[in-house]
Amino acid sequence: MADDFERLWTPHRLVYLQSGQQPPDDECPFCLAPGKSDEDALIVFRGKSCFVLLNLFPYNTGHLLVCPYRHVDTYDKATEEETAEIALLTQQAMKTLRKVSGTHGFNIGMNQGELAGAGIAGHLHQHIVPRWLHDSNFFPIIAKTKALPRLLGEVRETIANNWITDK
After folding, report:
1. In this predicted model, what pLDDT tens digit does every residue of 117-165 receive, in sequence order?
2. Which one of 47, 76, 86, 160 counts the least CB within 10 Å of its CB?
3. How distant, in Å, are the alpha carbons of 23, 91, 98, 108, 119 from that of 87?
4. Helices (H), ranges, 77-118
5. Largest Cα–Cα distance of the chain, in whole Å?
6. Whole-model pTM?
7. Distance between CA 110 and CA 29 in Å, rounded?
8. Cα(first)–Cα(last) distance of the chain, in Å?
């Protein structure tokens, strides 16, 4: 059936989707991160019940994750304290990213469960992906390459040193 849409087929993504890349609970990277140095774990801010770190495989420069310290898999299992701090840290992350990188917009969301596309399904985490006008291109699809202009360590240091905690 014709529908006037062009389609880009990316069959190489199927390997990632079907490979079952979920770590066992005792190897959860979000549980292990707080026990490491901020630099090694890419943590930019530590709160009471949650922390913020850079995504190791970012969609864009400054792609952050807000995670509770507690190993819990879905939002409905998070405590009121955890959900409140996830919201607060998300707001602070947005303000910080606007300050340090001139972000024009954001994609914010949670993929809960392996079926929903969660890269780490066993540990709740919220994505904060900064966006800029005209930041989309075909490079990742055609060349299987993502052009990120700054190294993760440099991005972590900039965000951590400029974290905005005021409301």
Report:
1. 777 888 999 999 999 887 766 566 556 666 677 888 899 999 999 999 9
2. 76
3. 26, 6, 17, 11, 21
4. 80-101
5. 55
6. 0.80
7. 17
8. 51
71 is in an annotated binding site: no
CA dist 11 and 78 (Å) reads 35
Domain 28-161 sits in CATH at 3.30.428.10
**Residue length of the chain:** 167
Buried b (16+ CB within 10 A) or exposed e, 80-104: eebbebbebbbebbbbbbeebbebe
Domain boundaries, the chain: 28-161
55 assigned binding-site residue: yes
Catalytic residues: 125
